[in-house]
Amino acid sequence: MTYTGGILKERMVDMVLFQNNKLNSEESGRGPSGNLYTIFKKEFSDQLSSTRFLILFFLILITGVASLYVAAASIRSTVEESGTDFIFLRLFTTSSSSLPPFTSFISFLGPLVGLSIGFDAINGEQNGSTLSRLLAQPVYRDDVINGKFLAGLAVLTIMTFALGGLVSGFGIMLTGIPPTAEEIARLVIYLLLNIVFMAFWLAISILFSILFRQTATSALGGIALWLLFTVFVPILAGPIANAVYPVKSQDDVISQLRNITLQQNISRVSPSTLYDEASAVLLSPGVRTLGPILMEQIYGATPGPLPLGQSLLLIWPHITGLIAGTLIIFGIAYTIFLRREIRA
């Protein structure tokens, strides 16, 4: 009885101490209700001060400014060929023989930024034995993963708008042409599209950091998936479409239409394809369709650029697909993390 009573007494003391620490932390603003903000602030400061983030940011900045400088240098010939409408937006889409446009750099390097932010979000702390210590405190698991994802999303937002502002200011200095209100609106929506696109890869990197114990494995898994979507899916779309709908003659218009449609649908499995098509519509208002054009569609159509509302309707499925993919992947990571047993 004495031994059992001693154990019960020790457990009661531990419970009282735990409740006191919990109340004290809540009174100081660091309780369970404030854990999300605390984790968010810590992860946000760590990401901004990390060397890998600075390296990737300056890499995108240098390549973007270089492509913008080439576009500004060749903007005169572009204006002579296609007029003076939307000159500011052409700085982001004009390419040269030496460098691709600014959107191509973001399409290629943007996923690397998202993957680099979250590939060690969970397994890095688990290998360092800090995750088990963190969860031993009155901290909810969902606060941990939500805080890490929101911190990465905030870093991507700041980086995107800072880069967009720097590149836009540099373009205005080179050309001396201020943007119109519609051009500013299209540019802001384009920057939001960049955030959604990189957030998709951020969610993938966090998922891999939960699935794989080693940080190198999660990083290689994210890079492999990026190469699959960016390189191999567009390459395999053509052979698969040719196998399903072979085009035997040039007069077989129906087979050609089905072949092109299937090839586009397979390519749109890749988030990079969705991003490229949405960027082309936003930054090039003259783009009126993303699929094959029939003579019935050309007849009676009004020439000229599309209004902003019509362009958004054209790319709304692309934006919805990227947002839905991000939420689904993060939901899977969220569920797995809540069910995962964390041992010291």
From TrEMBL:
UniProt keyword annotations, A-Z: Membrane, Transmembrane, Transmembrane helix
An MF annotation (GO) of this entry: ABC-type transporter activity
Annotated TM spans: 53-75, 102-122, 149-175, 187-211, 223-245, 315-338
Single GO cellular component term: plasma membrane
Keyword Cell inner membrane appears in the UniProt entry: no
Pfam families: ABC2_membrane_2
Keyword Transmembrane helix tagged: yes
Official protein name in the record: ABC transporter permease
